[in-house]
Design a protein that fits this description.
Strand content: under 5%
Strand order of the largest sheet: 1-2
Order of helices and strands: HHHHHHEEHEHEHHEHHEHHHHHHH
Number of strands: 6
Radius of gyration: 30 Å
Amino acid sequence: MAQLWGGRFTKETDKLVYNFNASISFDQKFYKQDIRGSKAHVAMLAKQGILTEEEKDQITEGLDGILKDVEEGKLEITSEYEDIHSFVEANLINRIGDAGKKLHTGRSRNDQVALDMKLYVRDEIDETDKELKDLLLALQKIMEENVHTYMPGFTHLQKAQPVTLAHHVGAYFEMFRRDRDRLFDIRKRMNTCPLGAGALAGTTYPLDRAYTAELLGFDAPTRNSMDSVSDRDYVIELLSAFSTIMMHLSRFSEEIILWNSNEYRFVEIDDAYSTGSSIMPQKKNPDIAELVRGKTGRVYGALTSILTTMKGIPLAYNKDMQEDKELTFDAIDTVKGCIALFTGMVSTMQFNKANMEASAKRGFTNATDAADYLVNHGVPFRDAHGIVGRLVLLCLDKGISLDELPLSEYKEISPVFEEDIYEAISMKTCVEKRVTLGAPGPDVMEQVIAQNKEYLEKN
């Protein structure tokens, strides 16, 4: 058992205790970050005269060799080691001898693991942001191609007013854009370097923490050594942002599942993103959308778990905090995988535009526009509301839409109606008249799409 401690102890750790305490099975994920942090630490120690240049070069070369061998599969990270830190240090000492024993000068595993976790989370924020941008580019393409694709807009899952597919998808564009903003905010707030905080109270060595922070791409060193080693706010913020991303993906997945049903037939999901039934040959199931919807609870669980873990921990570092890693690693993998699969699914979906428009007409989404027609001809809105309600009842009784009701029957209920009512309640007119900022009118949507394009080019 390779450990970084033991002089104080008179006998071996119980094997069950060792296994329970060890984190190598999951913290090996940030071997790159651990080596990167160690190289920066050694460079700073040499700058401050704590190590010689020769020692720095020996250690750096040894660390580079370990990284190369791990990545080429020549060196395996095994359970022989307690954690990734002991793996790196033990192999370094084995390779370069006593110089390797100086690597940990002025450093504790507490600030080391805090650094590794921050570096890993920061890297993964950048990767997740790239996935979100790819999704936004896919949504932008759908918007560009469907400014005039009419469909029903819903409230309470009831058909309400006509919108366009571009406008509907644009709502999700806004959600995922906010998700990127949240990740940006988290990255900025967390971008301080804990290395040099030691176990909890700093160190007596003359470290240059600002130099270490600069080498590792941080904005500054952390300001309080106790907070440095016990802060997991950024993990909680990340899991909260991830939960919101998954909530947005889940909402969109729910709609795609509905749109894909026989009752809606708004979309055709590509075969590559569908599955069949083992017994029913006619089935084509939207499994990717369903799995994304289902995995949302998994990410929520990670957030709840880390909040629960952290709520009773006194300052400074406590072993409980080791529980942050598996949860965060799993959530990161889940979110990135879901975004990538969802992007592929929506990029290859086919939209049944005729079905969408027909559904909007059958759902009386133009009823408000019929009422507005009466208002524009001098009828008080409340009276107009009642008149159109009677028209809808009549159409329901006949099994037709407002567009199909004869003018004579319009006039029986209100003589104000004329032939131009059909133009006023056409899907095209209903949408094109909605020109306020944020509405689905084509001129408004073209402006939004242009603004989206500019945003994606800059970000």
